[in-house]
Write a structure and sequence with these properties.
Layout (H helix, E strand, L loop, with lengths): L2 H24 L2 E7 L2 E7 L5 H20 L11
Antiparallel strand pairs: 1-2
Length: 80
């Protein structure tokens, strides 16, 4: 392995380690600040949103099921 390759691998390893440390430092943190008589509250949460999308989809399906049990609206009734 030449010096260029080993240098590039070292830089990549350092960047991955730094990104992991930054992620661990700021994930799930709440920052509160009181400045000039105003309160500011900021939450930092870096997570996958797959669970939220799954919950939203389940809620939509539940709503559709409830609508199926409801009597039909006039606009949905076929004319005779």
């Amino acid at each position: 392995m030449d010096s260029t390759t080993s240098g590039a691998l070292g830089i990549i390893g350092f960047l991955i380690s730094a990104a992991g440390a930054i992620y661990a430092a700021i994930n799930h943190k709440r920052v509160r600040c009181r400045c000039c008589g105003k309160d500011m509250d900021v939450s930092v949460d870096i997570d996958s949103t797959q669970e939220e999308k799954k919950k939203e989809k389940e809620a939509e399906v539940a709503e559709e099921d409830e609508e199926d049990d409801a009597p039909p609206r006039r606009s949905q009734v076929a004319p005779e």
